[in-house]
Specification:
Blueprint (H helix, E strand, L loop, with lengths): L1 E4 L2 H8 L7 H14 L6 E4 L5 H19 L1
Parallel strand pairs: 1-2
Length: 71
């Protein structure tokens, strides 16, 4: 499984190159690491904000947030 993000900090946490310090992020980190066990291999990669994959995801998230807000 491949996971892409434009957040260098998040990718650093998940790759283990940066230490997770904030308590609320430690809990989320633990949840992600637990879910990782469901896959044979997980690769995290940082992409620039202008990457087409990131732009597409941003668009989809904003559409869903707009939809939820209008309910």
């Amino acid at each position: 499984m491949f996971l892409f993000s434009d957040s260098e900090l998040v990718i650093g946490h998940l790759n283990g190159s940066k230490k997770v310090k904030k308590p609320h992020l430690k809990e989320l980190y633990s949840q992600v690491k637990e879910k990782e066990k469901m896959f044979e291999k997980v690769t995290y990669d940082n992409l620039p904000r202008e990457d087409p994959k990131i732009e597409r995801v941003d668009k989809l998230v904003n559409q869903e947030l707009d939809r939820q807000h209008s309910l």
